[in-house]
Write a structure and sequence with these properties.
about 325 residues, alpha/beta, ornithine cyclodeaminase, domain 1, Rossmann fold, 8-stranded parallel β-sheet, 7-stranded mixed β-sheet
């Protein structure tokens, strides 16, 4: 069994690799070639958290995976990961576990890559300004994803705690200086989204985190954080303005994402307003952006296929590079 740490994964796998992995994963889901049951959720209300278990199996990849990912937002205050996790990669022919991977980083990487793929397929080709709302454990990979697919001049970052936002921005400017974008800390979401071409929300908020009436024409929005029915980052005011609404998985989104479920219940939108899944766009079976003025919304909650494909591709690269620790 090969144990792969965060650093091991970083040594062999880039954000662009992760975007390609997600492209493959969503195609498998769209084609019905990956068995990805909806994740099992067990609440831990006393600690404002929950445990999530995500299985997947793809016969054509000869592999299965199980991710245990636990969402504990209060960990941020203690400097601990808000989404601690591990991924088990399993040989699809023998059932033997071949690798255990740092699931926290796999989750951050493949979730960021989902946004990156959506922006690559749906955003205007000429994008200059990005906006990131949220500075938690998922935020760094979300930031890198937008930088990886569009040549941005500036990204504005807004978080709940401005001092923490400033610290995050300083670190991101150091880590991602090769992309050539200026990363700035701002105090309000209005400042962040002003004239933004790309907007990512990655928070645990139960209330909208930006003003949907102030989103400019042509903006592409990726909403990442609303993984429960009561959670809501997306301002419903932007939905009637949106030309298209895409999902990573319609079934997964409709099982848990408050960003979409709450507006549906209030009659702000109907299912007739849904455009389709990103996998169909990636395969060329569904149109993406058709006009530079379209506001496009992408809602992602994550599916097990992403963990499976990402873990398998990381494992294969690690074996070739001789990276990781053998155990057992």
């Amino acid at each position: 069994m090969l144990l792969l740490s965060r650093e091991d994964i970083k040594n062999v796998f880039s954000m662009k690799d992760a975007i390609e992995a997600d492209k493959k994963a969503f195609a498998l889901v769209t084609e019905g070639k990956c068995d990805t049951p909806l994740r099992t959720r067990i609440a831990a209300p006393a600690h404002n958290g929950c445990f999530l278990f995500m299985p997947s199996y793809a016969e054509e990849m000869g592999a299965a995976a199980l991710k245990a990912v636990n969402i504990f937002p209060d960990n941020a205050g203690s400097g601990l990961p808000t989404c601690p996790a591990q991924v088990l990669l399993i040989d699809g022919k023998t059932g033997i576990i071949t690798s255990v991977l740092d699931g926290t980083y796999i989750t951050q990487l493949r979730t960021g890559a989902s946004t990156g793929l959506a922006f690559d397929l749906l955003a205007r080709k000429e994008c200059k300004i990005g906006a990131l709302i949220g500075t938690g454990g998922q935020a760094a990979c979300q930031l890198e994803a937008m930088l990886a697919v569009r040549k941005l001049k500036e990204v504005r970052v807004c978080g709940r705690n401005f001092d923490r936002t400033v610290k995050f921005v300083k670190q991101m400017n150091e880590e991602y200086q090769a992309y050539g974008a200026k990363i700035l800390a701002v105090k309000t979401s209005d400042e962040a989204i002003d004239d933004a071409d790309l907007l990512v929300t990655v928070t645990s908020s139960t209330d909208p985190v930006f003003d949907g009436t102030k989103v400019k024409k042509g903006c592409t929005i990726s909403c990442v954080g609303a993984y429960q029915h009561h959670m809501q980052e997306l301002d419903p005011a932007v939905l009637p303005r949106a030309a298209k609404i895409y999902f990573d998985s319609k079934d997964a989104v409709l099982s848990e994402a408050g960003d979409i479920l709450i507006p549906l219940e209030k009659g702000i939108i109907t299912q007739d307003d849904f455009t389709g899944d990103i996998g169909a766009v990636a395969e060329g079976r569904l149109a993406g952006r058709e006009d530079d003025d379209e506001i496009i919304v992408y809602e992602t909650v994550g599916v097990g296929a992403q963990d499976l494909v990402t873990a398998k591709m990381v494992y294969e690269k690690a074996v070739l590079a001789g990276v990781g620790t053998q155990w057992g």
